[in-house]
Design brief:
Layout lengths: L12 E10 L3 H12 L4 E4 L16 E2 L10 H11 L15 H10 L6 H5 L9 E2 L2 H15 L2 E3 L3 E8 L2 E9 L2 E12 L5 H5 L4 E2 L15 E8 L3 H10 L1 H4 L6 H9 L10 E3 L10 E8 L10 H25 L7 E5 L9 E2 L7 H6 L6 E5 L6 H4 L1 E3 L5 E4 L11 E3 L11 H4 L2 H20 L9 H10 L11 H12 L3 E3 L8 H5 L2
Helix pairs in contact: 1-5, 1-14, 14-15
Length: 511
């Protein structure tokens, strides 16, 4: 590739702070709020015009599998304030036992053989999704950042990192006014793609798929969009009468297969249709289907692949809309209301002193330096053709959110040190906000004590998190809380794309 030499120039320093958080998704929200609340001068950088990340820009307005006994702190606070603002669908506790999953368990195993917590609560794996109004969420997050004293910069892209030896000293942002430098005692990468870790030269893991039908290929992407103008009642009646095709989360296999044979530009082999994502009703349905796999030896951080991806995903959205409009009752007058500003991707993750893997998830592993709990199974449906409740709530160690090589660099959410399949669970919004809260607290404590996060006393961090109502380890949770997860793991609640899917389970565990 030919090159040119960029002229050297002086870049104005916008500010000198204690903690710089890059990326305003769930992990960045948890990191920025906890950093500022622990007394650190904190700045949060976000490339779009609002916070929320995938929850707003990606139209994924949900906290999945929240369990208040495992996830507290900032996650609980955010959900409570959304509820207070009338921006969240309130679960009906009177209908707990009519929950489809719980109903199946009762019918098959009998109430006497099912953990009481599973029967009497509507949380975690067996509960409903916590769905909210994403526009109110944007407004709420603005307010929470202002209350905490976070210095927020929207429409700011982190273009480069400032590194001196093994020390990360700050970042360079790019915006309409040009390039500006931000200096900080600690930097937290919550970009979702490991942009800061990669750009500063820290060791990172890539997006190669290690096994399965796409072994050796780079990870792809998927996205959601909204359809408006849907007669939801008519659709639900049709769904009830055709449960063989639409009774599971993923439906429409037959009509998609037929449409693809006729040349429809649809890459996913099934569709998720959720009217629940419209908190206020109004004929809106949330659709998950479009996906994109990069060409061989190409990565999604390449601009040509990003361009092809965006064009393909939009084309697929309209192809799906046309298919539903023609064949499914209730969708006769539907239209594409909104597509996501960016899709779900998996790119770089830091390498820490510990790499979390699926075997540890299955074991429900506990660590002495744990800073958060995850209960989200790895979502590797599109990569391996299977997805199941096959793990136990497990610890996330502090060593997995601190860069092994670069001082002052932490990560949270999708960017932490974990295997690529493990990342399929840890990237979800709930664990992301929890690791964000831990990273922000650690960065603040390190900055206030003028030490590297590597040298921070992890017991001080864990005690501080406990004071913020965070739950830091499965060792601090009673067996009664874990029992429903053990029950569901023991009965092997697993979904497969094809009955003949055969995967090396031991191999999956390594990643």
């Amino acid at each position: 590739m030919e090159t040119i030499k960029e002229p050297s120039r002086d870049i104005p320093i916008r500010d000198k702070v204690d903690v710089i958080v890059v990326g305003g998704g769930p992990a960045g929200i948890g990191a920025a709020l906890s950093s500022a609340r622990n007394g650190a001068k904190t700045v949060l950088i976000e490339r779009f015009g609002s916070l929320g990340g995938q929850q707003t820009q990606g139209l994924n307005s949900v906290f999945s599998r929240v369990d208040p006994q495992l996830h507290n702190g900032i996650v609980h606070e955010v959900i409570h304030r959304l509820m207070e603002g009338g921006a969240m669908r309130k679960p009906d506790e009177r209908q707990i036992r009519s929950n489809p999953m719980v109903s199946r368990f009762i019918k098959r195993y009998g109430e006497e053989n099912i953990p009481k917590r599973l029967l009497n609560t509507n949380v975690g794996w067996w509960g409903g999704e916590t769905i909210f109004d994403l526009e109110y969420y944007k407004f709420l997050l603005d307010s929470m950042m202002q209350e905490a004293g976070v210095n927020l910069y929207l429409h700011s892209f982190a273009a480069a990192a400032i590194r001196d030896g093994n020390t990360l000293k700050g970042i360079i942002t790019e915006g309409k006014e040009g390039r500006r430098a931000l200096l900080g005692k600690a930097v937290i990468d919550t970009t979702g793609d490991g942009d800061i870790a990669w750009k500063c030269g820290a060791p990172v893991m890539d997006d190669k798929i290690p096994l399965g039908r796409r072994k050796g290929r780079n990870m792809g992407s998927l996205t959601a969009f909204y359809l408006g103008g849907v007669d939801v009642r008519k659709w639900l009646d049709f769904r009830k009468a055709h449960m063989d095709e639409w009774g599971q989360m993923y439906g429409g296999h037959r009509i998609i297969k037929e449409a693809r044979k006729k040349g429809a530009h649809i890459r996913g082999d099934s569709i998720i249709l959720s009217p629940m994502h419209s908190v206020h009703g109004g004929g809106r349905v949330w659709v998950m289907n479009p996906m994109y796999g990069p060409r061989e030896d190409h990565h999604l951080w390449m601009p040509e692949e990003q361009t092809n991806l965006e064009i393909s995903l939009r084309k697929q959205a309209f192809a799906v809309q046309n298919l539903l409009k023609q064949q499914i009752p209730g969708f006769e007058k539907c239209f594409v209301e909104k597509t996501a500003n960016y899709p779900v991707t998996t790119m770089h993750r830091i390498i820490g002193d510990h790499v979390v893997n699926v075997a540890e998830m299955r074991e429900g592993k506990a660590f002495e330096d744990s800073i958060a709990i995850n209960n989200q199974p790895p979502d590797i449906w599109e990569v391996t053709g299977r997805w199941g409740y096959e793990i136990l709530p497990h610890d996330i160690p502090y060593r997995s959110i601190v860069s092994k090589e670069v001082d002052n660099l932490l990560a949270a959410g999708t960017t932490i040190s974990c295997g690529i399949f493990t990342n399929g669970g840890l990237r979800y919004c709930t664990p992301s906000m929890c690791t964000g809260q831990a990273a922000g607290t650690a960065a603040a404590l390190a900055a206030m004590n003028n030490i590297s996060p590597k040298d921070l006393d992890v017991n001080l961090l864990r005690d501080t998190l406990r004071m913020q109502k965070a739950v830091v380890s499965v060792r601090e949770v009673t067996e009664e809380i874990i029992e429903p997860y053990r029950f569901m793991k023991s009965i092997s609640v697993v979904n497969k794309k094809n009955s003949d899917v055969s995967i090396d389970e031991e191999a999956i565990g390594r990643y």
